[in-house]
Amino acid sequence: MDLAKIEEGKKQFETTPVSAKLLSSLRKSARLVATHYSTQIEGNRLTMEEVTQVVDKNIGGLPGRERDEKEVRNYYLALEYVDANYTKILTEKILQTIHGLVLYGKKKPTLYRDGQNVIKDGFSNAIVYMPPEASDVSMMMQDLIVWINDKLQEEKIPVPIIAALAHYQFATIHPYYDGNGRTARLLTNYILHHGGYGLKGIYSLEEYYAKHIHGYYDALAVEDIPNYYMGREQADLTDFLEYFTKGMAIAFTNIIENSKKQNPVISNDNSKLLRELSAKQRMSLGLFLQQKEITTNDLAIHLGVSKRSAAILIKKWLGSDFLIIGNSSKKARTYLLHHKWEKLI
Question: Where is each Fido domain found (predicted)?
Fold first, then answer.
């Protein structure tokens, strides 16, 4: 497997200075790429340019593509939700909310399927896999989430392996009638980010899956076991683990090369400053790239948190000299970035 290459890529990225402005740009690009390729896997017909128009510029109205437009908007929203919440311990509610965003574009948890679903061959329409019965799904999903959290806490199994196994098991359980593939890939992102392999959200595994789609499905098929109860839970997952880790290694290598090309000269002082910031502080720099002064509501929307949580963060950041008060009026209070951090944007 490519675990050594993944670790080397992670190490190189962590020691490569990246400006906040470039980081914000790369993160946005990665979300658009991930949205395009993950929805493309499911049959979405929009091009990369059209995805950018729909998501970034909010331009729609493509004749006969309303469903495609909705899919990419929803997936992008789900990616933003993952980026804003991955520091939290994974819960059933979080996972169900990810699916709710994927399918409906609403931050509302969706219940698991209440009946049998099947996976069919797109050409012959023959059943290629029958997931577990609906009555078993809830317990299986609870067990999966407990397993993920336990393994992440134990730190005995490499995080990429945990993510790969979680991806496989989610796809195996197939807890929903629709949206399983997209949710499985977002679950993978959540785990990798939570476990320290997010590279600040600037890479996309979805592109690798889409460009090697036959390998993706072949690896998930594991020995062509057509029914969950026929031994799929004991299947040999070597092929899928190798496929998954190879994709991560390629993505990590590419992002290092791209970062260096786009960011050839960055002062070491800026690099040191960035490492002093928390994940949420680094995320908030993207907001200051767009506007000089911010409000509590601006920060809440940008980070995907409640207004109360944003107010708590602002109070903390004022005390640590990350922010200063701009307009002191209670009704129109705004905040500025402390001069110490202005060089980062």
Answer: 90-243
Domain boundary among 240, 262, 284: 262
Asked if residue 147 and residue 279 are part of one domain, the reply reads no
pLDDT of residue 260: 61
- Dist CA 341 CA 323 (whole Å): 9
Is there a single domain that holds both residue 258 and residue 272?
A: no
Assess whether 230 and 317 both reside in one domain: no
DSSP 107-162: S---PPPSS---EE-TTT--EEEBPPPHHHHHHHHHHHHHHHHHHHHHT-S-HHHH
What is the predicted pLDDT for the residue at 97? 98
Q: Give pLDDT, residue 137.
A: 98
Cα dihedral sign for 298, 301, 304, 306? positive
Give the Cα-Cα-Cα angle 98, 101, 106 (nearest 5 degrees). 130
Contacts 24+ apart (CB under 8 A), 100-104: 101/74, 101/77, 102/74, 102/75, 102/78, 102/179, 102/182, 102/183, 102/186, 103/74, 103/176, 103/178, 103/179, 104/74
Structural domain harbouring 26: 3-262
74: tokens are: 């929803």
pLDDT (0 to 100) of residue 265: 43
Q: Name the DSSP letter for residue 294.
A: B
Low-confidence residues of the chain: pLDDT under 70: 17-18, 57-62, 223, 258-271
Last residue of a domain, one of 239, 262, 285: 262
pTM equals: 0.77
Nearest-angstrom CA–CA distance, 204 and 65: 24
**Residue 304 and residue 244 in one domain:** no
